[in-house]
Amino acid sequence: VGCDRSKNLVDICGEKHFQAFVCDALSVPVRSGSCDACISIAVIHHFSTAERRLATIQELARLLRPGGTALIYVWAMEQKYKNQKSKYLKEKNGSKNKDREMDAGTAQRPLSDQGPDNSAWSDQLLKDESCGAKPVADLRLPVHTNRTSFHSQDLLVPWHLKGGTKKKEESVDTVLVPGGSKELQELSPVFHRYYHVFCEGELEALCRSLDCVRVQKSYYDQGNWCVILEKL
To answer: What is the rounded CA–CA span in Å between residue 205 and residue 110?
Structure first.
């Protein structure tokens, strides 16, 4: 059984005859202790405070039966590890115009420019200077350049919606899509997603702070920090 915050993604699962429902990772409507195993892939790094990231892991543990296991993946600050580039960095040269499309017009910009409602949560961001990350200052978050190393733990990553239609009430940036003809050059919206990228040991430390779980394994995998934990 799968769940996601995005109704559109859940609808795709339904079309493929998979069981899935819409919910929030902080409050999953599933009975406590009813799961043999759970996975959380690329979810927890979207929460903007350390308290919420920990609460998400607690909720994951709540779902597990005693002896049940969970696998967690989050994006790593270290995209170069043991002298090896992650797949994310390696794909830069082979992506042709994709990254230029995604990054166009998204230079370093203050968070306050992204929309009227962002300042409410931006001042709650964890200002972590570990592993060489720059602290967030003046309620500003850097906009990441795709397929490059991270310079801040808290940042916005541009998401280029190809072929999307912009509703009147949406407040998004637009970029000019490169193309061979004028017909192909049309404005497409760019959304900025919040990320907290994890330093080495950070995810493991969060998991170890919970008395109800035991960390079985902690490892690095292609630009991600990963933990396998067991419910006690």
So the answer is: 31
